[in-house]
Structure formats: structure tokens, C-alpha cells
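Hi, here's the filled form for the chain we discussed.

Project: internal
Contact: R.S.
Residues: 487
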Amino acid sequence: MTPTILEKKTITDRLLISWIRCRRKAWLDLYEENKHKDWSAHRALQLDHQYKSFSALLSEAPNRGIEALKRGSNGVVGLRLKGIGPQGLKIEAHPPLLKKINLGSPWGDFSYIPVVAQQGRRLTREHRLSLALWSYLLEQVQQIEVKYGLAVSIRNAGSLDIQEIAITKKLTNELFDSLKRLYKDIRKDVSPGLIADRKKCTLCSWKKLCDEKANEEEDLSEISGIGAKRKIILQEIGIKNLSQLALIDKDDLTNKLSPYGESHKKIAGQLIRQAKVQKKLSPERLSSSMALPELNSAEGVFIYDIESDPDAHHDFLHGFVSLAKRKDGTWLLDDVKYQPILNLSNHTEEIAWGNIKRKLKSHPNWPVLHYGETESLSICRMAKRQGEEDKEINIIRNKFIDIHSRLKGSWVLPVNSYSLKEVAKWLKFEWSQKGSSGAKALLWWRQCQKAISQNNIKPKQLELIMRYNQDDCIATWKIAEWIIDKK
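And the returned structure, exactly as it came back:
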């Protein structure tokens, strides 16, 4: 038990949100030392989306504090709500926005409802329970029932989605049950175990700490190809860790997975092979045929990587690295040329497309290497939007070589993910900007847009994005080079 620590704590909305995402995260937020915590761009992106959504909702800037609430301001921020929850729990919340509605309260012919910014297309449990908690505490302040809250989200082209979320008795009961379960978790001496679906860990500032624990315990989630559902299935049939999976007979595993469906049954051999490779930390070849035969006759290659804003459906940077081959068949690695093609808004796509076409036609016989299917799909969609004929789009599509697909078809690597970052890291490649990531590049882009709107022609964030994009291109080549060298 850790009562001396817990007695100083109150259950907050931030702690509840952490617990909804991951029970272990809530415990770590409360008790673990911050030196083990890494900064994540995810929170900054959330706040950026929240600011834009709330700005679109309100016709004027919100005011702050309890006095603004009593005066009847249209929007109120900076308010700390306190109250007593189930079993006498002390709870506290800082709702990001309260919006005035025309419903009487002791203050006058108005009252307030909470607002949450919804990032993503789905309304989540996190959104619903946050609204329920803010409503529960707000009722105690304004002495009137809060019947609903708002979920708002700024969308592409500036449109605002607004949903009314009913604060029902069922939702309030779910909130109380969650608060009690959260309190039970944070009173324990040790943190809860790793979350089953570790894909979510990508966004978490405790990822590195949990990665170490997963590696130490040989957690099944560390094996490429095993997600939350498959991990649970393997545990049900008696396989608890990587070593046990690496040792099981293929026919035995196939039979045990049969009741769970064909998709799990037919992947048995692949899972065992991956576990063995990760156990012995040595790659294994799947095929004796060449993985990249097109590069034998190529006089050079383009390496291509896109940076995107998924919420706006906007590819804002198309990065190309040009790499030529010497007559003796070796590559001119000391003469790598990087060209960023910017598409600062969807209105400038025609110009960007013209630059991309010129780039591809400058060496019409060079293949285009990329990592993952995104680049090929995006460039073909762009070509279609710009009126290219199907014949021309097929020519472009056939130039593209997905290094990720070729790698997985020819090798099993001792990595827990075949993402660009994980494979390149295994090959000892390092990005020039420490801690850079796709999320951080997106944050830089959002900051860049703001700077451009303030007439800053070339903000520093643009340079950071381009350097990150260039590193992604070089990382893609390093993986391709490794495949070529293993012929």
C-alpha cells in the first residue's frame, strides 16, 4: 500500500482519462518518477485541435473563472471544479470549456454545459466519461441538472461537427463504477500489467519504460504479428511468453488455434518463426530469390516519402532523394540529392503535381522506392485528382516499389515491428533530430501553418520537417541497401 502518497492525491479528470486509456498509465502518472517519462507530441496535437474546435464554436474569446460563470459569459475556461464522488472519493476536474445555454439557474436565465473536443471520427468512452464527470461536478456548482454536453470537432475545410451527448443515469453509473475501479488500481503497491493492445503505446510518454518491461517479461505483444486479440487467444491455450511460443510444435499450435478461426490457424507457422528469430536475435531468410531484382538494371533510384496531415486529408510535403549508380554497379552514396516538393495548401496541389511529374520524368527509367503502401496510394490518388488518364496512372504505379512489402516477403527480422523506425533502428540508423517522429512532424506542420498565416514566409519548423523527411528517405534506402547486400 502507498497511503502516504495517495492521501495527498485527488482523483482528477486527467487521471481518469489516463486510466481509461491504460490502467498502468494512470498508476505511472501518479507514482512513477518523471525522469522515466518522454515528451510526446500527441498531447500538443490534441490541444491544437481543441483550440481550433473551440474557436470555431464560440463567436468570441471565452472568459476565465467562477466570476465569468456568474456573469453569464458565453464561454468559460480556467475553472476548477471539486466535489465528492462515490464512496466519499475526492474528485477534481478542469473542464476545457463550459458553454452557456438558455436554461435558468440561480445565476439568472442561463446555465452551462461542458464541451469536449473530439479528435478522430469516433466518439470514445474517454469523451463520454469526461463529459459525465464535468457534468456531475458542474451540477454541484450551478445547482441545476446538466442533461447533456457537447462533443465538437473541426473538420477539413473548417466545418465544425457538433454532437449533443446525453448525460444519462446509465452513463453516470458507468462513471461512478470507473472511479471506484480507478481508486482500487491506484491503491495497489505495484502497477497494473501491460495493456493487451500495445499499439496505443505509440502515443504514450511512458512507452520506453513499458517497452523495457515487455522485453524483460518476453511479453507476447513484443512479437510482430501479435495484437491484443491474438495475445489473449495464445494465453488461453497456455502460451504465456515469447520463449513458450518459440518452442511449441507447429502442428500442435495449428490444432490449438483451429477453434478460433482459419485466420489464426493458418498463421501458426509464421508466429513460431517470428518468435524464434526474435529469441535468437538473428534474421532468417524466407526466399532464395532476389527481393529487389529491378535494381540490378536500374541506373539510379528515387526514394520517396510523404508527410501528411490526416485530419485535413492533406499531403503537405513530397520528399524525393535521387541516388545514381556508377558504371561499376556501385551506388553514388556521397552524391545523394534531396528535393522537397511542398504543397502548402490543397489549393496548390496542381503546382505540386507538376513538380512531381517533372521529377519523375527527369529519369523516366528510375524506380521509386518507398516504405509502406501510403506513398503509392497517395500519389495515384493525386494523379487522378489532377486529371491524369488511367494509362498514365498505371505507368506511375508500376514505377513504385514498396520496400516494406519486399522485406516482409523475403526476410524475418528480430524486431517487434516492421515499421520504418523499428527496422532502421535495428540497422543502427539514427535520425539526425533526436526524438523526431511522424507525430512531431505533424505538430511542426501545425505550427508552420500558423507562422505562414502570420506572414512568416519560411518558418523554422519547415526546415525541421524537411530534415525529418529526408532522414525517412535515407532510412528507406538503408533498408533497401541491406536487402541488396544480402542477395
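Let me know if anything looks off before we file it.
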